[in-house]
């Protein structure tokens, strides 16, 4: 659609002879949660790295609100309203929780400084369930709370589009319920989300649409119910039935 917040067309990335992403196209509307699914090694994280500017594509287009951003460095893409978390949490472990969140404001035009920045960071920490934890060293937190700090830092840049790379991975059932509620609350603020995810419960509950990748290529798109019942998707995850 012409008014899509994010438009990806014909995206490609090669590593030598390996086509890690091969002809990926997708769109994300304002306030929508799109699931990016696929078995391990299917190219999902590479796609997120291309969209966020960690990697440069070999071919294809990435537009944010109609602006071409393919190949731009991460800091410039961030200025167009894209922020992300990582598959492995990346915090400044020797800095406080509050300082980590303030660091997320660095590339925001007109961002606050000093006590005003600290106040905004504390408000974001309260939003993710870490009220009163601002002075704690990030490295002293539990795994779940480190994930929350990384999310608060991503939100500090005031994104229009948030890329979550397996943000729900490694959580126990209670933490998962809490985390899913938090993701849903972010969408209520009209922030679009692309979720790379393996937790099917979360995909069914949170995603409006899904794109499924296999061996770098998109193989299905549609609602969660549609793609999870697609025979091509089932084969990608489970392999061919030898008795068929």
UniProtKB/TrEMBL annotation:
Transmembrane helix as UniProt keyword: no
Keywords: ATP-binding, Cell membrane, Membrane, Nucleotide-binding, Transport
Residue stretches making up the ABC transporter domain: 6-240
GO terms assigned for molecular function: ATP binding; ATP hydrolysis activity; L-isoleucine transmembrane transporter activity; L-phenylalanine transmembrane transporter activity; L-valine transmembrane transporter activity
PANTHER family named among the record's database cross-references: AMINO ACID ABC TRANSPORTER ATP-BINDING PROTEIN, CONSERVED COMPONENT OF ABC TRANSPORTER FOR NATURAL AMINO ACIDS-RELATED
Domain of life (superkingdom): Bacteria
Membrane spanning stretches: none
Protein name: ABC transporter ATP-binding protein
SUPFAM superfamilies in alphabetical order: P-loop containing nucleoside triphosphate hydrolases
GO biological process, one term: L-isoleucine import across plasma membrane
Organism: Neopusillimonas maritima
């Amino acid at each position: 659609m012409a008014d899509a917040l994010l438009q990806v067309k014909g995206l490609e990335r090669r590593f030598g002879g390996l086509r890690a992403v091969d002809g990926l196209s997708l769109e994300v509307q304002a306030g929508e949660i799109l699931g990016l699914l696929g078995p391990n090694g299917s190219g999902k994280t590479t796609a997120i790295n291309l969209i966020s500017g960690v990697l440069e594509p070999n071919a294809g287009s990435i537009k944010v609100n109609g602006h071409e951003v393919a190949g731009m460095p991460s800091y410039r893409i961030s200025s167009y309203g894209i922020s992300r978390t990582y598959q492995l949490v990346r915090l400044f472990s020797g800095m406080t929780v509050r300082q980590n969140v303030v660091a997320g404001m660095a590339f925001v035009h007109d961002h606050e400084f000093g006590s005003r920045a600290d106040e905004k960071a504390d408000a974001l920490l309260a939003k993710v369930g870490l009220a009163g934890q601002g002075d704690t060293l990030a490295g002293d937190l539990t795994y779940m709370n480190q994930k929350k700090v990384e999310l608060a830092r991503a939100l500090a840049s005031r994104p229009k589009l948030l890329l979550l790379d397996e943000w729900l991975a490694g959580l126990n059932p209670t933490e998962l319920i809490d985390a899913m509620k938090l993701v849903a609350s972010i969408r209520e603020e009209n922030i679009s989300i692309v979720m790379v995810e393996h937790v099917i419960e979360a995909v069914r509950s949170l995603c409006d649409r899904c794109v499924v990748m296999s061996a770098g290529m998109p193989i299905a798109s549609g609602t969660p119910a549609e793609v999870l019942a697609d025979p091509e998707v089932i084969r990608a995850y489970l392999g061919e039935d030898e008795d068929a």
